[in-house]
Description:
The chain has four helices and eight strands, in the order αααβββββββαβ. The termini are far apart. A hairpin with a 5-residue loop joins strand 5 (about 110-115) and strand 6. The protein is of the alpha+beta class. The protein has a domain at about 45-155: PvuII Endonuclease, Chain A (3-Layer(aba) Sandwich). Helices cover about 25% and strands about 25% of the residues. The strands form two sheets. Strands 1-2-3-5-6-8 form a six-stranded mixed beta sheet. Strands 4-7 form a two-stranded antiparallel ribbon.
Amino acid sequence: xTDSSISASETKDIDLERLGKxxxxxxxxxxxxxxxxxxxxxxxxxxxxxxxWWAKELLGLELEPPTTAGVDAVKNGVRYQIKxxxxxxxxxxxxxxxxxxxxxxGDYDKLLLVILDEFFQCSDIFExxxxxxxxxxxxxxxxxxxxxxxxxxxxxxx
Length: 158
């Protein structure tokens, strides 16, 4: 038994170029859900790149080349390490258990924690100083959010 496939001419009907970047990311969430249900995808290894893009767009950061260890972006001379987690209802782990590794790597000034929903939309961005996580190689999202130096930077309170 073989899967039905879409012909090359039918793929032209899917006009992604007319969609904004945020809309394309939403559709990606739907596709990943289907790929997981079919057992094709097991991980979300590209989530970090999407989180960095959101931080750049929402906070006006300049992204560093991917080969820059431990520093993902810069703004006004401040070096940022960006950690991204997708957290949503039905995910295998929630805020209390989601691990954030490698906090000790890199010469960054501030840590940004970007939270994405199921459809890769940014729901929150939190910032804390490197000193506030000093000595930790990893932490849970819940522990980072309880850090006294942790501040929500997006969305900004009205």
